[in-house]
Amino acid sequence: MVRTTSQDKMKIKNYTKILEVVTANPGINRKKVSSLTKLSNQTLSNLVKELSDFGYVLEFPLEDAPGYGRKPIGLQVNFKAFLIISLEFTYNSLGVYLNTCDGEVLQYDRYALDKALDVITIIKEGVENALKYANTRVFAIVMSAEGIIDEDNRKLTHIKALALKDVDLGQEQAYLHIPFFLLNETNLICSHVNLTNTKPHNFMVVKLDTGIGCSIALDGHIQKTSANNMPGKLGHLKVTNPDEDVTCWCGGKNCLSAFISRDFIEARFNLPYEEALRLIRDGEASGFYGKILSYLAPILANVTTLMGIEKIYACGRMVDIFGTTFIADLAREITPLIPSWINFMGIEESPVPSIPEQCSVYFMDYFLKNILTYLETVEETPFKVR
Ligand SMILES: [Zn+2]
To answer: Where residue 24 sits, what CATH number does that domain have?
Structure first.
């Protein structure tokens, strides 16, 4: 924990004010920063000099500024100065990236995971190897995880494929003294859309893959329920009028994920997931394509109506393999089920940036908005000249 006096706190808040304004307006000149932050020219000048000495801000002459003589100085956040470890945790592998917050990957390793292996030790070793490679401060570890997790308590609640239950990953990583963020993969994509796109107030990201992921943002805020997160819920809404009754692994009857998740599709077609999806798209099993639409559309329409969703962003291997016609077919099925007073603008394929990009955007946003909390979790201040 970094000890901070109230004077330090004031200064650090001013640093982050500047960083926030410059992040939102790359190339902005000092005069505009001064008016947006309400800091006096002299104070701003001193703080920018310090931020530049730490390496967090770059100053450069604005060549295309009008007029002759000395060009005004533009400011830009140096995202290369922020190094993080991004983890991609799936049911069968762990990707470990050491990357700067502009998304540049300096080191990458991938480890196979299986329920017969000691998954937690593999995660620790992966992180330790990446740390060895880093020769400067690592600001955070950000993990995108498939499965049912508890983000607030940084627990892997239930990862069926790896036989993990209630693993306190935050505690497992505590010895590293590096802030650790655990996020459901769909929440992380939703957060990226929320922070970077021009997006509607209320939207939903749906991932149709090994599992069914769903994340909902209302009025710019990603929704959480008290003990758990949204993901892990959409897949267990009930399909209406299925042709047969199917019991889900959760014990419930006719859950959506019991009909369209990887396990079900692989078992039904006795093929690997992607091959089965291709067969459903254009092979003998193509009749099943219509069933998927009829299972999925009413559930998405109900959630849209209840939450006032304006746009659905879809991603995942099912979307990749079925292609753009799938999105169009889903839209055609969903739209008539939604009342006219809901401002529903349709469904589109979600952009899915790389894991290092998703983790970088998440971390920078957290860092700028929660700097004092961040300082409570690290041993050394990030605000000193190296
Ligand atoms: Zn279920």
So the answer is: 1.10.10.10
| Calpha distance 377→170 (Å, rounded) | 12
Give pTM, 2 decimals: 0.90
Is residue 383 situated within a structural domain?
no
Contact in structure between 333 and 300 (CB atoms under 8 Å) = no
Backbone angles phi, psi at 148, to 5 degrees: -90, 115
Any alpha helices (H) in 1-147, and if so which ranges?
A: 6-24, 30-37, 41-54, 119-133
Ligand 1 centroid to Cα of residue 148, in Å, is 12
Inform me whether the pLDDT recorded for 226 exceeds 50: no
Reported as a single tens digit per residue, the pLDDT across 49-58 is 999 999 999 9
Provide φ and ψ at 198, rounded to 5°. Answer: -85, 110
Q: How far apart are alpha carbons 22 and 29 in whole angstroms?
A: 9
Cα 184 to averaged position of ligand 1 atoms, centre (Å): 18
pLDDT (0 to 100) of residue 228: 52
Cα of 328 vs centre of ligand 1, distance in Å, is 27
Q: Are residues 177 and 211 in the same domain?
A: no
Hey, which bits of 78-202 come out as E strands? 83-89, 93-100, 105-112, 140-145, 148-150, 155-159, 164-168, 180-184
User: What's the 112 CA to ligand 1 centre distance in angstroms?
Assistant: 27
Q: What is the pLDDT of residues 329-372, one digit of tens each?
A: 999 999 999 999 999 999 999 888 999 999 999 999 999 999 98
User: Which CA distances in Å does 82 have to 7, 79, 290, 363?
Assistant: 25, 5, 47, 9
Q: Structural domain tally of the chain? A: 3
- At position 192, the amino acid (one-letter code) is H
Q: How do strand 164-168 and strand 105-112 relate by DSSP bridges?
A: unpaired
Cα 238 to ligand 1 centre (Å): 8
pLDDT tens per residue, range 293-330? 999 999 999 999 999 999 999 999 999 999 999 999 99
Residue 254 or 196, more confident: 254
